[in-house]
Write a structure and sequence with these properties.
By secondary structure, this protein is α/β, with parallel strands linked by helices. It has helices at 67-77, 91-108, 115-130, 138-143, 164-179, 207-220, 243-262; strands at residues 2-4, 19-21, 37-45, 52-62, 155-157, 183-187, 232-235. The protein folds into two domains: 1-135, no CATH class; 155-276, no CATH class. The protein is 36% helix and 14% strand. A three-stranded parallel β-sheet has the order 5-6-7, covered by helices on one side. It has a two-stranded antiparallel sheet with strand order 1-2. The protein has a two-stranded antiparallel ribbon with strand order 3-4.
């Protein structure tokens, strides 16, 4: 898409807005009318038991979309409870929900030079999404155009200090971020090590201990209300006293998996016992 715009006006005068040129679309022809649509059944089964874990029949997609693409969109991005009239059942509905919301926001904030430019923007964006030239990140599909907070960033960088108030606030902030479908990352180096004393006379828990608590929370809160696990990044400076414990954490969890599998527990991906490790 090409855009032309005059420089922002000085002296408080209103900007003339953006002129949007057509690149992929044809005047008078909606992008949806240029493709062939078909009805599909999206059914996912447990590979061990054959049990249906997801089922939505009669969803509508272009005939050139792969089965994998339509399955991902249906299971992850269609909003509304399954089996209710509010459930999205067509790619058209999903794209319209997002694109019309952006067009409306652009018009309300004076981004476009005219209503015609707003329509060109809508059609061009629809065409590119429909033809898989690009895709928005997951939080956009989860939230834009819904009653949920319009959270669209893929990742948030947080900070935490060496105090219980700050640590508990970190847990709370991450929870709301995960609920909206985004990921979070932070550096834990400000938290004192497990080798240091507290003013009460006890020994500090250390950043790895608090990291485990946050990881358990991430595993519990499904990202964006979908079935995927929330995404986390945790960093610790190399000169932190607990750096060895931090580096070895994942390897120790893998040792637990091997030991529990040898003992007969179901430790496969998606297994009922895999949630016992981090």
């Amino acid at each position: 898409m090409t855009e032309t715009a005059k420089a922002p006006a000085r002296g408080g005068r209103k900007s003339p807005g953006l002129k949007i040129n057509r690149v992929f679309t044809t005047p008078g022809v909606h992008p949806y009318d240029e493709v062939t649509w078909e009805s599909r059944d999206v059914v996912q089964t447990n590979w061990k038991t054959g049990e249906h874990v997801f089922e939505q029949r009669g969803v509508e997609f272009p005939d050139f979309w792969s089965l994998n693409a339509s399955t991902i969109v249906t299971t992850k991005y269609f909003r509304g409870a399954l089996g209710t009239p509010q459930r999205e059942a067509s790619l058209k509905t999903l794209i319209d929900r997002v694109v019309t919301t952006y067009r409306k926001a652009g018009e309300e904030n004076g981004y476009f030079a005219s209503g015609e430019d707003a329509e060109v923007f809508e059609h061009e964006l629809t065409w590119m999404l429909l033809n898989q030239y690009f895709s928005f990140n997951s939080p956009v599909w989860f939230n834009v155009g819904t009653a949920s907070p319009q959270q669209v960033s893929a990742c948030f960088i947080l900070s935490v200090d060496d105090s219980m108030d700050s640590i508990l606030n970190w847990y709370k902030e991450e929870g709301f971020i995960f609920k909206g479908g985004s990921g979070a990352g932070l550096n834990l180096s400000r938290i004192r090590s497990s080798k240091e004393l507290l003013s009460s006379g006890g020994t500090a828990s250390g950043p790895v201990s608090f990291m485990r608590g946050a990881d358990a929370s991430a595993g519990t809160i499904k990202s964006g209300g979908a079935t995927r696990r929330a995404a986390k990044m945790v960093v610790l400076d190399v000169d932190h006293p607990d750096i060895y414990e931090f580096v070895e954490t994942k390897a120790r969890e893998e040792d637990k998996i091997r030991a529990l599998r040898d003992a007969g527990f179901d430790m496969d991906l998606g297994g009922k016992d895999i949630v016992s490790v981090q």
